[in-house]
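Quick one: structure tokens for this chain, please?
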Amino acid sequence: MRSVRVGLAFVVLAVLAGACAPAPPPPPPDTSAADNAAIAKLRNDYAAAWKAGDADKLGTYWTTDAVFYPMEQPTLRGRAAIVEFFKGQFAGVTPNDFVINSAGVTLAGNVAVDHGTVDISMTPNAKGAAMMKLEGRFIVVVQKGGDGTWLLRTVIDNSPTPMAPPPPAGKGK
């Protein structure tokens, strides 16, 4: 009989301990729809700034310690280096179009990965130069800051084909 009481006491203690244990915290709210919308807005705003040739505005979409692996260029580290890269690029070309085609975003808390293709057209500033077109591919890591803003953290881009050089400027024109 004593063993039954001891066993019953352990069961009562286990039930009481379970009842007194703090409840697990509730899961965080599902912000995936808002996060996907914010990342899509970042994509659209970035494309608009590129089409406007605004290197400083482009810089506002990158974290201060971002890393950019541009096509056929050295790796760029930090927002300032990325802004200078775009200033140099826009000094030599007039942007025409920049269309980002996302193939999908994978969210993981305050980090997300976006990937897809981009269609770019620009006209070199040299007199008589023809418009150049480029099809690119990208993988982008975006990071959500404490204020809820998504920014570019790491960008890798490449192209399945090299950009064709513009045809030589016509002579006598």
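The CA atoms of residues 129 and 135 lie 19 Å apart.
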